[in-house]
Design brief:
Rossmann fold, 8-stranded mixed sheet, 5-stranded antiparallel sheet, 23% strand, binds adenosine-5'-triphosphate
Length: 340
């Protein structure tokens, strides 16, 4: 499928995914992803971390990018083509070669009864990446990128692999089709701290040497800071702050990002930031009331925050979904140091 040169690699504009659940006569509505926008440019491979606490909508957004979940509203284009309009044939012959998932638990993707190399052969055959002996060469190349060889992997069962080796093989499987985008949902959260860095370094290497962009989904700010070029911080379906990772985490502007950062245990960067007292998304009964989703807990809340939804305003080299950064705001803005 020819690529249109001027199109972004991934364009997400005001994307929303609503889940409705019925209990008796009442319907509850949960905006798992709500009005989220982000763009990954073509030809500039980067690692974009989508960070947020459990239930903030990261996986739902990732599943929409992978074409596994249909958006309720908004734009989701890959190389200029709406993902929701792709036919099963488009997906098989183009999209699934271009966009590959990397999952949290590599052992869950491999059956204990099957040799791991069989997954590599299956992927190569299913996507017709090569014929005959060239298949082995392609598999060996993909394994080479993650620091392994087919000779090392051949004939081995999952229980003969370490967690790090299993995750490397699952990344090699994803690379067989030479994708342009990896969607990696918590790819290191099941690994020992000592192995985490090697996998995160591998993503950086893939970006630099293979030109692969990575959407890195994580609940862990420390690994996002270490790995990503840019970050989007999610709160109950919204992306509340997005920009270069050094700016957003070095000097967070949104009161929620400030709260998250202040809750990271500084002495132990490997710890997840579970201490943040954020709310999980709550299903709401119709009608839905407006206002900022952080208003009830924001130390800087203003009257309008309870009634109006803030826009996403450009401030200090990033976008912030908060009235404090609306052009013309004349009050005092919080600083990261002043977080209560
Ligand atoms: N198929 C579904 N039906 C109904 N609700 C769903 C469905 N999938 C996700 N949700 C809800 O949407 C919200 C966002 O879930 P999601 O898994 O995207 O969050 P997350 O940030 O990835 O969390 P975690 O890190 O725990 O996976 C949650 O409240 C979840 O219960």
């Amino acid at each position: 499928m020819p690529q249109q040169p001027a199109q972004p690699l991934l364009e997400i504009d005001r994307l929303t995914r609503v889940f409705l659940s019925r209990q008796g006569l009442s319907v509850t509505r949960l905006e798992a992803v709500d009005d989220a926008s982000l763009t990954l440019e073509a030809g500039k491979p980067e690692i974009y971390a989508l960070a947020g606490e459990s239930g903030s909508g990261k996986t739902t957004l990732a599943r929409m990018v992978l074409g596994l979940e249909r958006p309720t509203q908004g734009t989701l284009n890959y190389k200029g083509r709406p993902v929701g309009d792709l036919t099963p044939k488009d997906k098989r012959t183009w999209f699934y070669r271009e966009v590959q998932p990397v999952f949290q638990d590599p052992f869950a993707t491999f059956s204990p009864m099957k040799r791991v190399d069989s997954y590599l052969y299956e992927t190569a055959r299913n996507y017709r990446v090569a014929e005959g002996a060239a298949i082995e060469k392609r598999i060996d190349e993909a394994l080479g990128v993650v620091g392994l060889t087919l000779a090392e992997v051949r004939g081995r069962y999952p229980n003969e692999l370490s967690g790090g080796q299993a995750q490397r093989i699952s990344i090699a499987r994803a690379l067989i089709t030479r994708p342009s985008l990896l969607v990696a949902d918590e790819p290191v959260s099941m690994l020992d701290a000592s192995l985490r860095m090697s996998i995160l370094n591998l993503f950086k290497d893939l970006r630099d040497s293979q030109g692969v962009a990575v959407l890195y989904i994580t609940h862990d700010l420390a690994t996002a800071y270490y790995t990503a070029d840019r970050i989007g911080v999610m709160l109950r379906g919204w992306i509340v702050e997005t920009g270069p990772v050094e700016r957003v985490l070095g000097n967070p502007l949104h009161p929620y990002t400030q709260l998250l950062k202040s809750s990271v245990p500084q002495a132990d960067p490997d710890k997840a930031w579970s201490a943040a007292p954020a709310e999980p998304p709550r299903p709401v009964k119709f009608p839905v009331s407006g206002g900022c989703k952080f208003a009830a807990r924001c130390p800087y809340v203003m009257d309008r925050c309870r009634q109006e939804i803030p826009g996403s305003y450009e401030a200090e080299g990033r976008h912030v979904k908060c009235f404090l950064y609306e052009p013309g705001f004349s009050g005092v803005r919080p600083t990261a140091e002043a977080v209560p």
